[in-house]
Amino acid sequence: MKKLCLFLILLGTYFTAFSQNIQVQGTVVSETDGETLPGVNVIVKGNSTNGTITNLNGEFTLNVNSGDILTISYIGYKSQEIIIKTNKKLSIALREDTESLDEVIVVGYGVQKKSVVTAAISRVSAEDLNAAKPSRVEDALKGKVSGVQITQSSGQPGSDSKVRIRGIGTVNNSDPLYIVDGMPVDGGIGYLNPVDIQSVEILKDAASAAIYGARAANGVILVTTKTGSKGKTTINYNFSYGWQNPWKKKSVLNAKEYMTIMNEAQINDGNSFRYSREEIANAGNGTDWQEETFNDDAPIQNHQLSISGGSEKIQYFLSLGYFNQDGIVGGNYDKSNYERWSIRTNSTYTVFEENNRNFLNKLRVGMNVGYSRANSTAIEANSEYGSILGSALTFSPLVSVYADEATGADILSRYPYAITNKDGRVFSIPPTGFQEIANPVGMLNQPSSTQNNEDKFVGTVWAEIDILPGLKFKSSYGFDLAFWGADSYTFPYFLATQGKNLDYSTVQSEMNRGYKWQVENVLTYSTTIAEKHHVSFVLGQSAQKYSVRNLGGNDRDLLETDPNKANINSAIADAKLERVW
């Protein structure tokens, strides 16, 4: 029996080894004309490290296991999957992906089939955009477009992203030109709800962006929002809720390590030890300031509701979105939060369509209008020392979050505006020599706030008429109306002697309004000659104007230290201390 078992084990091992050494050979050709295809990717499915490409004669050789699945893919052709059972030579015919070649992309003032576009244009569809449920459109583009670098300016909720198309193009401002449904918008596209977007085209080279002139020096990002289609009314609702945590914490010294390093520094300076062996042995780990500062399980939620449909005459798309995110630093103290409401209505109406004549036979009108409201609070970001996160990394682990009762009483006697929590416990202040570095938890409890707000309306109203077969005239009016501002206050406080204290209250408020309008009239003609040659002409006019107004002021010495009454009208300082702009 033992010999039989041993024989079966050896036999199974033999067959396993045999199955792992199948050498597959094959040739890949085009199904259309039978021509061999060089450079075709041949990869084992699920194992991207085991693969090859075909040579100039369309041939390939690859070692695989019995039962493996080969994935054969080539640009412009539909991919195939083949299960390998024997080492029989393969003959693979790939079919052209005509759907991909016939895909229509936006190119400036019109559209073209992907198969005839020669300029450097990349397209990202709605399916790709919403796969990761992003909070901002720019974040959804990360890693999906070659030659485009997207980096978030900070980890702050709602923070802008820097978009660079083929590197830095200009010295002062390298942001690309953003165009939403034909309307150039200022301030980026962070106001857009990603779910409302049908596609994003990125014009990367001079040939594709030339029609926009000098404005396109850093590239162009064309955003097309969704529209309704003929059919029954469709209602979609998407909801997501998640929690955020820091994926990594900085490795810093604990109390024992900190005391040891400080002793070494003292010795190097020719001084005696600062801490004895007994003090080091009894120090423990001390305060983990990162643990005390981070907001674990910071919530993030997203709600999306859309209604679309249409008939022969009218097509419509309506959407409502809500997004809310708390920061992992300060989110639980209302210091770092972002909230956005958005609403959009896109509609197209066919005024008339006459099939019994070939001139002035169709007139369509439409509008694409979106509104968003964003409220946010923010902490200081990208600061090495004076910020909350900077202090959490550099503050002494020997200092506790709160001072003991006796020390707290002493701090309050010397600094009446020392910060306390809701229970009256006094936050510890830094020892001598820490300069602008302060207790980060105390900074989170600092009696101050800045509420940012932004309202933005962006829309286009248009009409298009078919004059003759192939000849169309379109007139449009676009607008970008934005209101933004901030209201802030700071009550007297004390955290440290070096720039972290204030013995009077301050209040500030500012309002801004920007308005841009654009009028465009475009005449286009397109025709096909001999079913092979496609010719198109564009003649257009465009005019736009931008205006902005600003108003702001600050004052000090508020009547009460009540956040609900912290406005400029409640300040009683001397007029010489007031400032208006």
Compact overview of the structure:
With 581 residues, the protein is mainly β.
Please give the structural blueprint:
Blueprint: H1 2-19, E1 22-30, E2 41-44, E3 47-53, E4 59-64, E5 69-73, E6 80-83, E7 90-94, H2 98-101, E8 104-106, E9 111-113, E10 121-125, H3 126-129, H4 137-140, E11 148-152, E12 161-165, E13 177-180, E14 183-185, E15 197-203, H5 206-209, E16 220-225, E17 231-244, H6 255-268, H7 277-281, H8 289-293, E18 298-310, E19 314-326, E20 337-353, E21 362-377, H9 388-394, H10 405-414, H11 440-444, E22 448-468, E23 471-490, E24 493-496, E25 500-502, E26 506-529, E27 533-556, E28 579-580
In words, what does this structure look like?
The protein has 581 residues and is mostly beta strands. The protein is 14% helix and 43% strand. The strands form 7 sheets. The chain has a 10-stranded antiparallel beta sheet with strand order 17-18-19-20-21-22-23-26-27-28, with no helix packed on it. A 5-stranded mixed beta sheet has the order 10-15-16-13-14. Strand 13 and strand 14 form a beta hairpin.
